[in-house]
């Protein structure tokens, strides 16, 4: 079998009062949504308060699936729980506009037992993250293009401005301009750090596969 074997966290939901069980799930490799409320069920549209709990990201964080799980909610900093059954674990407060994201993760993973799940992902059969993306170019990416003899890769038509950031420009079809017909990257050796560090099996990867290919954890939706 081609591709990569990835062990990813299973996301579970816990009502208040079940912090010990949530802690055991996270320490076994999972991610936990821990609600402030003792209610297990909520009404649609109801304001809910809760934390997304995960193990402290390894440093550097670029390949840590906990770190990418909060990046997918547009956050890149976290706090540490200092007391109680969750002590020593990391958390973020779940923004109200991200409730549907954690709900979807919990629903997706409800069919899987345990705290982790092993997946086989073949990027050459997928390339979902090379579509409809926003790859930000940092200074060292531009330097790499220059050092590799391709300085034009940092200029139009390959790039565009997004506010004060430089990003890769997509084709009208929403594919990255550098994606080839065989799903290989046409600038693989020089590709931006955002591409080379993007971890298969992360929440961002799973979201891309679902959004672009209709694959929910490998199953056609
Ligand atoms: S979305 Fe995931 S599996 Fe697909 S190409 Fe990107 S990293 Fe690989
Ligand atoms: S530069 Fe390469 S790896 Fe990055 S999005 Fe484009 S095709 Fe994919």
Walk me through what this model shows:
By secondary structure, the protein is α+β, with helices and mostly antiparallel strands. It folds into 2 domains: 4-122, no CATH class; 136-191, no CATH class. It contains 6 helices and 12 strands. It has helices at residues 19-27, 65-71, 99-109, 139-147, 193-196, 203-213, and strands at 4-9, 11-14, 31-35, 50-54, 79-80, 90-93, 116-121, 136-137, 159-162, 165-168, 215-216, 219-220. The strands form 4 sheets. The chain has a 5-stranded mixed β-sheet, with helices on both faces. Strands 8-10-9 form a 3-stranded antiparallel β-sheet. It is elongated. The two termini are 23 Å apart. The model has no long low-confidence stretch (mean pLDDT 94). One iron/sulfur cluster (SF4) binds next to loops.
In short:
The protein has helices at residues 19-27, 65-71, 99-109, 139-147, 193-196, 203-213, and strands at residues 4-9, 11-14, 31-35, 50-54, 79-80, 90-93, 116-121, 136-137, 159-162, 165-168, 215-216, 219-220. The chain is α+β, with helices and mostly antiparallel strands and 221 residues long.
Whole-number average pLDDT?
A: 94
**Order of helix and strand elements from N to C terminus:** EEHEEHEEHEEHEEHHEE
The class by helix and strand makeup works out as alpha+beta
- Whole-number tally of structural domains: 2
Strand % is 15-25%
Distance from first to last alpha carbon: 23 Å
Continuous helix count: 6
Bound molecules: iron/sulfur cluster
User: Strand count, sense and closure of the main sheet?
Assistant: 5 strands, mixed
How many strands? 12
C-alpha geometry: elongated
Percent of residues in helices: 10-25%
Work out the radius of gyration: 19 Å
Strand order of the largest sheet: 2-3-4-6-5
Low-confidence runs? none
């Amino acid at each position: 079998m081609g591709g990569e074997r990835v062990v990813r966290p299973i996301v579970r939901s816990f009502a208040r009062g079940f912090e010990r069980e949530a802690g055991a799930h996270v320490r076994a490799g999972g991610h936990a949504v821990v609600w402030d409320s003792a209610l297990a069920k909520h009404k649609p549209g109801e304001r809910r308060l809760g934390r997304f709990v995960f193990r402290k990201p390894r440093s550097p964080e670029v390949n840590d699936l906990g770190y990418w799980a909060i990046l997918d909610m547009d956050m890149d900093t976290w706090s540490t729980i200092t007391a109680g059954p969750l002590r020593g674990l990391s958390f973020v407060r779940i923004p109200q506009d991200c409730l549907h994201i954690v709900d979807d993760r919990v629903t997706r993973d409800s069919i899987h037992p345990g705290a982790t799940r092993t997946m086989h992902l073949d990027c050459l059969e997928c390339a979902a993250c090379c579509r409809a993306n926003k790859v930000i170019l940092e200074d060292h990416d531009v330097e790499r293009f220059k050092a590799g003899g391709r300085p034009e890769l940092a200029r139009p038509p390959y790039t565009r401005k997004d506010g004060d950031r430089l990003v890769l420009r997509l084709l009208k079809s929403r594919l990255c301009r550098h994606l080839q017909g065989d799903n290989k990257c046409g600038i693989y050796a020089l590709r931006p750090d955002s591409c080379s560090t993007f971890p298969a099996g992360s929440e961002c990867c799973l979201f891309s596969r679902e959004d672009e290919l209709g694959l929910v954890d490998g199953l056609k939706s």
